[in-house]
Amino acid sequence: MVSIKNRMMAMAGVLAALAMIGTMIIQIPIPLTKGFIHIGDSIVYLCGILLSPAYAAAAAGIGSALADVLSGYLLYAPATFVIKAADAVVAGFVFKLIARKGKRTISRTFIAVIVAVCAGGVVMVCGYFVYEAVLFGGLAAIAALIPNIIQAGGGGAILVPILLALDKMNLIDKMSQMAKPVPQIALAPKE
């Protein structure tokens, strides 16, 4: 039998790999900046929605930081680890808070995704603002605000159809069930 810990670790590993690949391979440039929108941000939000907070933080932080390291942005990797981990935890908390109240409908899921992405996006934008202000000064950090906001929003926009499709197939519930203990069946002793 597979334990809850093993199932969560496996899901976290897959999502970390998807965050890394989505960040590195599928990039939509933001005009007039060095930034880009990528599916990696969508996966960061998805980590928070599907996993428990600790596993979400690990998957989002590790996957995103590895993408920075492998893409030549080593200077950003430590901050990315912390910022994306916090981004996932906040987005997941907000999504679960809204989506689990009352009957879950497509409109409730849609609202939960939008609010969760906004909350996680604020964490991301503020985190990178502080990091870039320390490294490069206030003007450089201010100049990066708009691209970071676009990146957070773009990741959320990509997430919405993915999450609605997962919800329609009941995969969100099924994946959430994977994180719960499997009831043990007591076997009668042999006579």
Summed up, what is this model?
The protein has 191 residues and is mainly alpha-helical. It contains eight helices and two strands; from the N terminus they run αββααααααα.
Protein model, in words:
The structure is a single chain. Helices cover 75% and strands 3% of the residues. It has 191 residues and is mainly α. The longest helix is centred in the middle third of the chain and has 31 residues, at 106-136. The model is unreliable at 182-191 (pLDDT under 50).
Provide the structure class. mainly alpha
- What's the gyration radius in Å? 18 Å
Query: pLDDT under 50 segments (min length 5)?
Result: 182-191
Give the distance, in angstroms, between the N- and C-terminal Cα atoms: 25 Å
Following the backbone from N to C, one meets helices and strands in this order, namely: HEEHHHHHHH
**Total strand segments:** 2
Mean pLDDT over the residues: 86
Lateral arrangement of strands in the main beta sheet:
1-2
How much strand? under 5%
- Number of alpha- plus pi-helical segments: 8
- Overall 3D shape: globular
Helix proportion range: over 70%
Largest sheet: 2 strands, antiparallel
Features:
disordered C terminus, mainly alpha, 191 residues, 75% helix, two-stranded antiparallel sheet, 2 strands
Question: Which helices and strands occur, and which strands form pairs?
Answer:
Layout: H1 4-24, E1 27-29, E2 36-38, H2 39-50, H3 53-70, H4 77-99, H5 106-136, H6 138-143, H7 145-168, H8 171-178
Antiparallel strand pairs: 1-2
